[in-house]
Design goal:
Layout lengths: L7 E10 L7 E6 L5 E6 L8 H16 L9 E2 L1
Parallel strand pairs: 1-4
Antiparallel strand pairs: 1-2, 2-3
Amino acid sequence: MLEMKIPTVKVLSVIRELETASAPLHCICINEEGKMDKHYLKFVLEEDEYCGLVYEIVCSKLASYMGINTPEISFAL
C-alpha cells in the first residue's frame, strides 16, 4: 500500500533563493528527529499554484513507491 505520510521540518534560516522558474529557497531546517538538515523549500504565491505543488507531491510519492529515486518531500513550518 502506498503510504502518503509527509514529514515536517522547521525552517531555521534561509541560505539563498535559487534563480529558477519556481524560485525555491535553500534553507537550514530541523527534521522530526531533531537533526539539522538542508532543504529546498517551494512555496506558492498565488492560489492557483497549489495544484502544481500537490501534483508534484503525489507524483514524487508514486515514483518512490515504484522504486524511482526522488528527493524527499517535507512540509515546512
